[in-house]
Amino acid sequence: SAVISQKPSRDICQRGTSLTIQCQVDSQVTMMFWYRQQPGQSLTLIATANQGSEATYESGFVIDKFPISRPNLTFSTLTVSNMSPEDSSIYLCSGIDRDSGNTIYFGEGSWLTVV
Amino acid sequence: AQSVTQPDIHITVSEGASLELRCNYSYGATPYLFWYVQSPGQGLQLLLKYFSGDTLVQGIKGFEAEFKRSQSSFNLRKPSVHWSDAAEYFCAVGASFFGNEKLTFGTGTRLTIIP
To answer: Could you tell me if B92 and B109 are in contact, meaning their C-beta atoms sit under 8 angstroms apart?
Structure first.
């Protein structure tokens, strides 16, 4: 099974700043995704991180606010730009492990609080 | 577009009692269904998944789920709950088996275990 690590695990950020979250997978995964979980709510897909090309964003999410990189098959970053208190959420990285029957694994999440 | 409904926001069960968490989905083709658990302060852990074949799926920690196409349901069950099962449970449906496994999550069911 794939193990997905995220950094930072938690952070408190000032309004107007940006923070980059890193996602590292211990094995090659075909697809990687970024999700957001706002307090007390379910998970919402932000975007699909594509290797070597621009991410594919879901409705309501834009590249200027959530730039994503994926330079190789095991690493991706999500930046939350110009943060406001409404961006206080858990951000989760996920990847599909083809060697485990297409199981979709999640990182433990990055808990961001914007003050 | 696919959707998932978890009708129960919060369930309280006595330790040792049986458990059933409900999940209904909407999807035009054959669904790919998942149950995840999120313990307080933790990320998501996959309990079980259904792609095809036997409609009764066994998962980790003694959980099982049954896919019922006629009812568009994928309910999660456990014959005897333990205090450590207290967590948030999410049902999810995947868009496709290959190439685009974006998940749509339900709103979650919070499980409380009482002695």
So the answer is: no
Given this model, what pLDDT does residue A39 score? 86
Among A104, A105, A108, A110, most B C-beta atoms within 10 A, so best to mutate, is A104
- Which residues in chain B come in under a pLDDT of 50? 99
DSSP H or E stretch at residue A36: strand A32-37
Return the structure tokens found at B28: 């035009």
What is the pLDDT, as a whole number, of residue A81?
98
- Do A104 and B34 lie within an 8 Å CB cutoff? yes
Amino acid in the structure at residue B65: A
Rounded Cα–Cα distance for residues B34 and B90 (Å): 8
The SS3 call for residue A32 is strand
pLDDT exceeds 90 at position A100 = no
More confident call, A47 vs A27 = A47
Burial A12-45 (b: 16+ CB within 10 A, else e): ebeeeeebebbbebebebebbbbbbbeeeebbeb
Please, which residues bridge with residue A85 across strands?
none
Residue A79 structure tokens: 């930046």
> From the CA of B96, how many Å to the nearest CA of chain A?
11
What does the pLDDT look like over A65-94, one tens digit per residue? 999 999 998 999 999 999 999 999 999 999
